[in-house]
Model the fold of this input.
Amino acid sequence: MRKSYPTDLTDAQWGLIEPFVRASTCGPQDVLHPRREVVNAILYILHTGAQWRYMPHDLPDWQLVYHYFDQWKKDGTWKKLNDTLRIKVRKKAGREAEPTASILDSQSVKTTEEAETKGYDAGKKVKGRKRHLLVDTLGLLLLVWMTTADVQDRDAAQAVLPMAAQQYPTLEKTWADGAYAGPQVESVARESGINVEVVKRSDIDKGFVVQPWRWIVERTLGWLNRERRLSKDYERKEESSEAFIHLGMIRLMLRRLA
Done:
């Protein structure tokens, strides 16, 4: 027994996650530490932003926890869990299980010196990576794609839109900002069967003005930034960055569902 952390799963939340982590075959079942404690430790790292080696002593050994985090990243457990919880949240909100509309945007974030890939975003003056997020109209994550920060949004759209069309056949429309305007995006949008509508800021607007539809993905980025591990890209590999973004959304949806 130990004192609980604010990030610990409740019984109801664990009930939603347990089938997914039990289905994974990476390692023995509850030999030294229950799977629930392993997930609690991963959520602790996500929310506090602590380094793996600074895992509190009353949680499982950091090497064991990282092993499970890495394996569940590689076998797609985190993405499967995100997709399943998103459907549950959508149904709870009275929406169809699969989306027909989405919003696309990116966020440039700084990396540490250990990052294997990084670039320079001249517009934002950020050296690091770029998170390309596609969310539904509730702001729930549909797709995340990591690149170096020097990749232009219109170039990233040529990869994101075909992936979105393949994973979400019901998707018909996506809203985006002016960075996604141009013939390249229009061409890939036609091939993907997704109508891309660019929502531009009005020339007469002064100061901060909420833009139709675009504010939804901006709010999602704000949600993710509440997790200290996501306030900056601390990961060596881009795949780990994607996994923590999925975890950030998983934690948010768990609180909504249970």
